[in-house]
Every structure is written in structure tokens, then in C-alpha cells.
């Protein structure tokens, strides 16, 4: 079965209706309307490196304006917010990101003799595969468990992506239309406000 | 960094982390980034000593604290509840959005160690008036009698100091009061004095497909019992509550009040009877007199430090913050059991892709249950588990898929486009206490300057065998249902143990009534006192213990009064 496609504009259209509570609309609309994030925590070179890494982990060649998955990390680290837990084997989040992104650059230099941002996409993917597999070279990995760092970074970027209304349009999610209840909850049974797959 | 005292970043007190790595330090200095040392906490001003003494202070307003708070208030006692989190209005404040609801979670950092580090935050730890019930999934199966007797039946673990007959009346009372929706008769869990007050909630896609597949395989299923109203319900002392809208958002906060979280059930009842609930009140110290009796609790609220004097203390802060407070205050430690025997339920999940349009965001997430696996005949492990169908919201699903399945790049986006076609089943299984699983205070400090809790958890042989048994069975069920692209996610949910209940102060922290053996006016009531983990979701049993603890306390007070 090939993965389904959904029409675009579905969530944005719902947000303009009274099918969505004010609290829900405010949360989603703020993400749609967010201005371009200027880094606060990361210095510009590190931020550019992080954006390049994120573009390979969650590639968006289909979007003229990619959903920003990195800005939220910068904002969180600048504000000093945590998500309730951390692997004991990992240093605090700020240090983990600094060490981990530095380690990705070290791996790029060791494998391809150039910084990560200067590599081709396939070379970048090879570096990230080594990071994901826990085999990436680089002295920073002496202080940071490489596999755990990859998992934490991927999970956070993924969460930021699928929290965005445009990504939710992409997967046909309209659970935010929460004012009326749901009555058609059986398989293959849709409410009028649920988008059908594009055949 | 075991030797460094690092003040962790926190919501209230953001600070810069000290950098340990010399290479990184050099890079940062080159870039002109300053390396700020942790800020020192200011010396606190002396705490004013109020004259007022209340009968009872209850720390925590979740499933452990709220029922007993109501009971004590209804008995005419002057009671104050201290809740670390804020008070919210679900109707106006709860967006149907996973990120926007992160304020419901206990987001102060906990350190997870061991071979199977347990996730916290949005996994089983809540904050706010209502505690973790604000985001529990409202599963409310009863424990069975043999759940309380693993040692009797298998020779491992420890038994509860009483049988299910002690809990049954409270289960019944809770089901009636909270308006639990479920089938009557319910196929498992032994004799019960009353059926569920409301009919089961409707089955969603995952529940219906699991039902059909289990029927093919000869596994009995039933609509589950859920603490969400299948019809409008009149709740004694509170009034009408509205029915569930099948919004599927139970793992986060319910914005219609259909889910029986404590903020719409026991807490308003408690307040109607004079209980006072203080939100944003983070307890830091428990004070005692020279005889060892607790005299007062010190907490921080809105930047102020406040002391509340009390005659009795009920510690109901959950199986992480309860032992943490005991350890911080060197309280109730004579048994050596505080922080020990931490248990976490195996929560193995199996996900599959279906040709049917499933829409996993609709309906109660845990619609269908089977307890046929309570004591499986072919088990190579102790205890048992139950099976539940599961619904899921997209961010949670994507996040655990990234962690568990490790897809990234185009593969990740391609897989996630199947979100509307995925369905899951999971288990909730017993966990044996083991000495290598425990909570301790770390050297690393939180934003308040208090040591962070570190939890060690490694799935032992019994948990591993249970995982393997259940994974195979769930794969068989989903295969029979026509699923493709199956994958499993090994996870651990619920925090249990760390201040166990027992018959003797030599090996338990509290007695069968919930009173600490070595502190005469301290009661503990939450999942920390569970001697064993149970093969069911814990919330209903925590509430039952809470009511029982209150009744035992009140009976003891009455006896004392009679002696006067």
C-alpha cells in the first residue's frame, strides 16, 4: 500500500471555523504565524550547522519554505526548559547539543575532510548514518553517548515538525477540530470535517 | 559529571550550564560566548512562623491525595492541600494540542539510569491541581486478588498486607462516584458487589479490529472500563458532568470534564466541605520536634517561603517526589526501604499499518481490553499482563517512532503519511521488585538548588520474558487483523514502589494503614506504597488506597478521642 496523500489547506481551513476551540486555535495559529526565528542560544555557525543537519533528518524538498524545526530547540535551550527527564548518561541538554553538533562536524572532517555544511547531501547522510549507528569518529563522542544524542535530537526535531499545522495537513490529522464531538469513529467512517485521501 | 554540582536549567531560574569539555570551551571562547558559572541561590530570609495549626496537610492533589482530602474534609477536619503545580481551567486553558498541553507534565528534570531508563515528563508524571490524573488515560481496571499475592503464589516479590476484600468496597464506591463506563458483567477480576454505573464507551477503529482478530484467535475481549463518562452523569456533591465527546485526547487534559480527573471530582467535593487547596506550592522541608513528630511543612509559593503547621501530614506526591522528599528531609528512613524497589510496568506496544482508514485520534484511546493473559497457561514468567487497544496523537506517535524505530530522512516522512492507517495494542504487565532498581538523590541540583532524583531501572529476566511473550501474541493479533509493517516499541510506564507498605518496620516504610512505622503522624498514600506493581493500571487502586487510608486514619482518631 502506498502512503496516502491528503489535500493541502485542510487544517488552515478548519482554524477559520468555529469547529476549533479558542485555546486550540491560538496554539496552532501561533505556529503558522511565527516569524523567522533568530538564534538566541546557538551562535550563528552552530545554528547553520544544526539547520543543515535537520534538513537531512527531516528533509522538506517539497516545501518552498520548510517548517522550522530547529528554532524551537534554540528557544527551549535559551529559556532553560526541560521536558521532565534526561538519560543519566547524557550531560545537560545545552551541553549535549553543543557537544553533539560539534561531534557531527568532527565526524564530517574525519570521513570527508570538510565541515558538515560543505558536504554533498549523500555525504551528509553518510555522516548521520554513522552517528545513528554509533560509529561516528570524533573526540566529542568520548564525552557524549553518540546513539543517545542522535535519538534525543531526532525525537525533538520530529516532535517540532509534526506539531506544525502544515505537517498535520500532510498526514491528514484534524483532531484539533474539537468543538463538536466525534461520532463516526469506526474504521473507514469519516466525519464531514475529516479530509479524504487524494486518489 | 558525578563530581560537579551543576544547577540545572529550570523554568523558574534559567541559568547557563557550566561547560566541562575543554575543546568546546576553547571554541566558545573564540566565538566570544561567555561561560557563566552557575548562579548561587540567595540566602533565604527567615520564614515567618504562623500560629495557625491545621489538622492535616496533604502534599499532592492526584489520585493519592485528592480522595483522602475529600474524606478528611467531610469528616470535619481542617485540611490544607499543597500542590506543586498551577490551577487551570480545562475549558479555556486546554488546547487540543500536544505541545500546548506540556504544562500538565512534571517537567523538572529527572535523571533516568539503568539499562531501560524510564521516560518521564509526558510519560506518567503530572503537575497541577489534579496531579497526574490530569493526563492519565483513564484506564480503570480493578486489581485481582492474586495480584496482591505474588509471593504466596510464586515465591517471589512480597505480598500486600491484605487481600482484595479490603479494596473491593472502595473500588465499588469509586466506580459509582466517578461514573466509570464499563461492561456489566465484566468477564474478569472476580466477584464485585455492583456493576459499572454507565455503559461502555463506543469502540473505535483499533478496538474493533483487535476485537475481530482476538475472536479469530480464541482470545476473549471486552470493552474496557474507563473513567470517562459515556453519558451525562450526576456526581454526588458536584453536580452534572458532561459525556465524553470521543476526542481521543485522554492522554492529555480533557476539556469537557468527562474524564474523571481529580480536578472535576474529589477536589471540588473536598473544597465544598471546607478543604483549602493551595496551588503553586512546592514543598521543600518537613519539620519535626525533638520527639520526631512532624510539626510543619515549608513550601515555596510565588517566590515566598511559607510555613504551615500541622498535626498530621499525608505525603501523596507520587513515587518519585514522595521518596525524594523523605530522603531530602531524612524522614522515615529506618527500614532502609525509601527509594528502594522501584518498579515500572512493562508497556510493550505493537504497531501495524492497516488498509482501513483508522484515524487513531478518535474515540477513547483504550477502548478494548483482554485479561486472558492475566495468568497465561504457557507463561515462562511470574505474574501476568493485560492487553489494551491504543489510540495515539500524532506528535506522541512520531516521537516514539523516531526513538523506537529510528527512521529518519525521507523514510520518516513517508512512514508518517500512514498515520491515519496505524493502530496499536499494548500490554500493561506486572513488574517484580529488584534491588538494582531504585531512586536516589543525584549530586546535580535543580533550579531550586535541591538534588535531582535519579532513577535506575533495568528490566530483569521476568520482565524480559513477559515482553517477549506479549510481543509475539500482539504480533499474532495484528497479523490476524490484516496489519502490515509491524513494529514493536519496548517501553515502561508508571512509577511504583520506593516506600513500600508492609507488616513490619524492618522491611517496609508504612504499615497496612499507610502510616509510617517510624514517624507517628506521617501517612504516605500514592503508588510509592505499592508492595508489588499489579498487572493492571494503577490509578483506581491508588484512589482506593487513598479512601482506605483516610478511613483508617479517621477510625484511629475516633479511638483516640474515645480514650480521652
How would you explain this protein's 3D organization?
The complex is a heterodimer of chains A (about 200) and B (about 575). Chain A has a domain at about 40-165. Chain A is about 50% helix and about 0% strand. Chain A is built from eight helices and one strand. With about 575 residues, chain B is an alpha+beta fold. Helix content of chain B is about 25%, strand content about 20%. Chain B has helices at about 20-30, 65-75, 90-95, 150-155, 170-180, 205-215, 265-270, 320-330, 395-405, 410-415, 460-480, 540-564, and strands spanning about 55-60, 80, 105, 110-115, 120-125, 220-225, 235, 240, 275-280, 280-290, 295-300, 305-315, 345, 350-355, 370, 385-390, 420-430, 440-445, 450-455, 485-490, 490-495, 520-525. In chain B, strands 1, 2, 9, 10, 11, 12 and 22 form a seven-stranded mixed sheet that branches. In chain B, strands 6-15-16-17-14-20 form a six-stranded antiparallel sheet, with helices on both faces. A three-stranded mixed sheet of chain B has the order 4-19-18, covered by helices on one side. In chain B, a hairpin with a 5-residue loop joins β10 (about 280-290) and β11 (about 295-300). The longest helix of chain B has 25 residues, at about 540-564. Chain B starts with about 20 loop residues before the first helix and ends with a helix. At the A-B interface, α2, α3, α4, β1 and α5 of A face α1, β3, β4, β5 and α6 of B.
Amino acid at each position: 500500500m502506498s502512503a496516502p496523500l491528503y489535500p493541502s489547506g485542510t487544517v488552515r481551513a478548519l482554524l477559520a471555523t468555529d469547529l476549533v476551540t479558542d485555546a486550540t486555535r491560538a496554539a496552532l495559529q501561533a505556529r503558522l504565524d511565527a516569524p523567522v526565528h533568530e538564534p538566541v542560544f546557538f551562535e550563528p555557525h552552530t545554528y547553520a550547522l544544526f539547520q543543515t543537519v535537520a534538513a537531512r533528518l527531516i528533509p522538506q524538498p517539497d516545501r518552498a519554505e520548510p517548517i522550522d524545526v530547529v528554532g524551537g530547540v534554540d528557544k527551549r535551550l535559551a529559556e532553560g526548559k526541560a521536558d521532565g527527564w534526561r538519560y543519566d548518561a547524557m550531560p545537560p541538554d545545552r551541553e549535549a547539543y553543543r557537544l553533539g553538533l560539534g561531534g557531527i562536524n568532527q565526524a564530517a572532517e574525519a570521513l570527508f575532510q570538510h565541515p558538515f555544511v560543505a558536504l554533498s547531501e549523500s555525504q551528509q547522510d553518510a555522516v548521520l548514518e554513522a552517528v545513528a549507528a554509533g560509529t561516528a569518529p570524533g573526540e566529542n563522542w568520548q564525552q557524549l553517548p553518540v546513539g543517545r544524542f542522535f535519538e534525543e535530537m531526532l525525537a525533538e526535531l520530529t516532535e517540532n515538525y509534526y506539531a506544525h499545522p502544515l505537517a498535520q495537513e500532510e498526514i491528514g490529522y484534524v483532531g484539533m477540530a474539537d468543538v463538536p464531538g466525534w461520532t463516526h469513529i469506526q474504521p473507514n467512517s469519516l466525519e464531514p470535517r475529516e479530509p479524504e485521501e487524494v486518489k | 559529571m558525578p563530581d560537579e554540582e551543576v544547577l540545572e536549567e529550570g523554568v523558574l531560574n534559567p541559568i547557563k550550564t557550566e561547560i566541562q569539555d575543554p575543546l568546546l570551551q576553547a571554541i566558545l571562547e573564540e566565538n566570544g560566548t561567555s561561560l557563566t558559572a552557575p548562579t548561587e541561590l540567595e540566602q533565604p530570609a527567615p520564614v515567618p512562623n504562623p500560629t495557625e495549626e491545621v489538622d492535616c496537610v496533604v502534599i499532592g492533589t492526584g489520585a493519592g491525595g485528592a480522595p483522602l482530602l475529600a474524606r478528611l474534609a467531610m469528616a470535619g477536619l481542617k485540611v490544607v492541600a499543597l500542590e506543586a503545580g498551577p490551577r487551570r481551567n480545562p475549558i479555556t486553558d486546554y488546547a487540543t494540542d500536544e505541545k500546548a498541553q506540556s504544562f500538565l507534565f512534571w517537567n523538572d528534570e529527572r535523571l533516568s539510569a539503568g539499562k531501560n531508563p524510564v521516560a518521564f515528563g509526558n510519560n506518567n508524571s503530572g503537575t497541577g491541581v489534579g496531579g497526574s490524573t490530569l493526563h492519565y488515560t483513564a484506564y480503570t481496571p480493578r486489581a485481582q486478588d492474586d495480584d496482591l499475592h505474588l509471593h504466596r503464589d510464586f515465591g517471589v516479590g512480597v505480598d500486600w498486607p491484605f487481600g482484595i476484600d479490603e479494596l473491593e468496597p472502595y473500588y465499588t464506591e469509586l466506580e459509582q462516584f466517578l461514573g466509570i463506563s464499563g461492561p456489566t458483567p465484566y468477564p474478569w477480576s472476580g466477584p464485585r458487589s455492583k456493576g459499572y454505573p454507565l455503559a461502555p464507551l463506543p469502540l473505535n477503529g483499533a478496538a474493533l479490529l483487535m476485537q475481530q482478530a482476538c475472536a479469530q484467535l480464541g482470545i476473549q475481549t471486552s470493552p474496557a472500563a474507563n473513567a470517562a463518562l459515556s453519558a451525562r452523569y450526576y456526581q454526588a456533591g458536584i453536580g452534572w458532568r458532561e459525556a465524553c465527546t470521543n476526542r481521543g485526547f485522554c492522554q492529555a487534559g480533557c476539556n469537557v470534564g468527562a474524564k474523571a480527573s481529580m480536578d472535576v471530582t474529589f477536589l471540588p467535593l473536598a473544597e465544598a466541605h471546607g478543604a483549602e487547596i493551595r496551588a503553586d506550592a512546592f514543598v521543600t522541608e518537613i519539620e519535626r520536634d525533638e520527639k520526631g513528630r512532624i510539626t510543619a511543612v515549608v513550601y515555596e509559593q510565588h517566590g515566598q517561603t511559607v510555613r504551615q503547621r500541622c498535626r498530621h501530614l499525608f505525603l501523596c506526591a507520587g513515587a518519585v517526589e514522595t521518596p525524594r522528599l523523605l530522603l531530602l528531609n531524612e524522614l522515615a528512613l529506618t527500614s532502609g526501604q525509601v527509594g528502594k524497589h522501584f518498579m515500572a510496568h512493562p508497556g510493550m506496544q505493537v504497531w501495524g499499518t492497516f488498509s482501513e482508514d483508522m484515524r487513531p485520534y478518535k474515540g477513547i484511546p483504550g477502548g478494548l481490553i483482554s485479561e486472558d493473559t492475566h495468568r497465561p497457561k504457557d507463561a515462562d514468567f511470574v505474574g501476568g499482563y493485560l492487553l489494551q487497544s491504543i489510540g495515539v496523537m500524532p506528535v506522541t506517535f512520531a516521537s516514539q517512532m523516531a526513538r523506537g524505530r529510528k527512521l529518519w530522512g525521507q523514510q520518516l516522512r513517508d512512514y508518517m503519511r500512514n498515520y491515519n492507517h496505524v493502530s496499536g495494542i499494548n500490554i500493561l504487565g506486572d513488574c517484580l521488585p529488584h534491588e538494582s532498581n531504585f531512586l536516589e538523590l543525584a549530586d546535580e541540583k535543580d533550579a531550586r538548588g535541591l538534588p535531582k532524583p535519579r532513577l535506575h531501572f533495568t528490566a530483569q529476566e521476568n520482565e524480559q520474558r513477559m515482553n517477549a511473550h506479549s510481543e509475539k501474541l500482539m504480533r499474532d493479533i495484528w497479523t490476524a487483523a490484516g496489519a502490515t509493517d509491524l513494529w514493536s516499541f519496548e517501553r515502561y510506564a508508571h512509577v511504583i514502589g520506593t516506600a513500600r507498605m508492609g507488616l513490619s518496620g524492618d522491611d517496609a516504610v508504612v504499615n497496612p494503614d499507610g502510616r509510617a512505622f517510624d514517624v507517628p503522624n506521617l501517612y504516605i498514600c500514592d503508588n510509592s506504597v505499592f508492595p508489588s506493581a499489579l498487572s493492571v493500571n494503577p490509578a483506581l487502586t491508588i484512589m482506593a488506597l487513598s479512601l482506605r487510608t483516610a478511613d483508617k486514619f479517621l477510625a484511629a482518631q475516633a479511638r483516640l478521642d474515645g480514650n480521652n
